Request: fold
Amino acid sequence: MMKKQASQSRMPQFPEPYWRESVELPQFPSLQQDIEVDIGIVGAGITGITAAYLLTKKGFKVALLDAGKILNGTTGHTTAKITAQHGLIYDELIQNFGLETATAYYDFNKESMEFMKEVIKEHNIDCDYEIQDAFVYTESDHYVNQLKKELQAYEQIGIPRKWAEDIPLDLPVKAAVAMKDQAQFHPLKYLAVLVEYIEENGGLIFEDTTAVNANYGKKPMIITRENYKIHCNKIIAASHFPFVGAEAFFSARMHPQRSYVIAVKAGKKYPGGMYINAEQPSRSLRNFSVNGEEYWLVGGEGHKTGQGGNTIDYYDKLLDFAQTNFGVEEYGYRWSAQDLVTLDKMPFIGKVTDDQPDILVATGFKKWGITQGTGAAMLISDIISNTDNRYQELFAPTRFHADPDLKEFIKTNSNVSKELIKGKLEYTRKNIEDVGKDEAAVIRIKGMRTGVYRDTDGKVHLVDTTCTHLGCEVNWNSGDRTWDCPCHGSRFSISGEVIEGPAKEPLKKKDNL
Reply:
């Protein structure tokens, strides 16, 4: 107990990624009138910005909009590894879909990496870009055989690789496989230059502009919450969870996962390389420097959104791991991120349906959105400009594999049904008086399930806990001070405003006390 209390006292009060704190990004107005452009892009993360950059270079007039501030979503909360090494994925892809698909998946990510390297060179971007080997390691005898199978998959595909019985980290490693010559960088320093290019070359960028619907008529149209309209020829939904495409049943074909990151100064010098373990709980490692001072970036502890219990505990577990193995001298930053996982673990990129070829989506990056988000922008740019791209069929959102997709479909939606029923039947004896400062609880008020948060000034904020997406009941996320939906991953602020979709409308507020 004393150890936990000590770690909490050292924890930064608010989750704020280093990337956003260390870059001064430009501010953009909200949309205040109807406009007409060639391409309307919703979501200003790495996918939306890269797509806007590419299409602007091709001569299209683009409008890029975000419900909040640019680069404040998953891209702003990444671990920022530029890599085709996505955990133990390649043997699984070969077993499920064959060598050709596994090779194409690798090539897609490799081409994304090469593109980013060329953009950095072309614009002379100072974004702390460094070549690093990326290791998957295990501390368990049980996973050694899986690592050997992954190495064999690398050999079949032709991936530059290395097998190791140990790694430079002081961990009791049984085995490791490395994908050579990957990279790490500062994502916002990189993307800020692309934003500047877009703006300087006629692109329009709008913040605090929420897209709530789209008109799929002869000419597409994005409709904002304020009822302004963006008339365009093509729509790109790069908003993490697509704001369009209900007919594609994305809610039933993906599930949301959260993960956590801390940045600490350690008692040991970082030995180089990027690392992730094979087993659970997950552990991800890389480093970065601030004014010449080195920080270790320690990530992991994933769980389905809204189903993680006391999320503060995940930060504590990462800190305990870092303290035990590397020695922590300063706890600098903490943050968390969310991403979507598709049934077959490959992203959805392309036309939302065959009947709606002018509406394109990019989602389901499985926590590897730096390369996959970049590749998605490249693929969508090619689709729009009628340029051949061999990955179009591979990542088509309309795909469905009988096996393993059907098994995962049943598993994912059984979990949703369980959480829906669980939330409706939950009972609590707590009262408002039991909620302390900076604490929250779910309380039945006049028979209605109510989310109660008391801020540090003692003010109480009350919201209806029924998610405005499909009616599941949200749970409190203590680590980020948000209300999170356990069914499809919508997230809301203490006052009920939408932080993350698929929900488009805020939670209903109740009369505050």
